Amino acid sequence: MMCNVTLNLLLIPRFSFLGAAMATLISICIFLSLQYGFISKNLFRLNFFQIAGKPVISAALMGMIILLLRQLNLFLIVPIAALAYVLFLLTLRPFSPTDIQLFRRLWEREKGLVTLQSQRSGEHNPSKK
């Protein structure tokens, strides 16, 4: 937090909102590096590139598409970029079958919680017809 405040004080006067974005990005990178070091040293060894390599490549490819489309309207760029990212992830297959099974279980559990909350709040639930 102190890192982010310090960087904001240094970067915002010179770069405005881009300075705030840079300060946040740098702070997050520092925080993640510290977390990675702590987990690797005290809990278990992590292979960062094995975990994050394919999503980072997908994000970089999406960034290139955004650069190519930067002349278009933002409301057109955002869905195209999101779709490109998903397609790159599907192509590179960064998730194991175990990961996918975990995502499905979490998704189903979350759907169940949302349905339960809407029933408790007295909202109409069209799936109960």
Number of strands: 0
What's the shape?
extended
Radius of gyration: 20 Å
- Number of helices in the DSSP assignment: 5
H/E element string? HHHHH
Give a verbal description of the structure.
- Keywords: Membrane, Transmembrane, Transmembrane helix.
- The protein is mostly helical and 129 residues long.
- The chain folds into 2 domains: 96 residues, no CATH class; 27 residues.
- The protein is 81% helix and 0% strand.
- The protein has 5 helices and no strands.
- Helix 3 runs antiparallel to helix 4.
- The chain is extended.
- The mean pLDDT is 88.
Descriptors:
129 residues; mainly alpha; 2 domains; 81% helix; 0% strand; extended
Q: In a few lines, what is going on in this structure?
A:
Keywords: Membrane, Transmembrane, Transmembrane helix. By secondary structure, the protein is mainly α.
Please outline the helices and strands.
Elements: H1 2-15, H2 17-42, H3 48-68, H4 74-92, H5 97-120
Helix pairs in contact: 1-2, 3-4
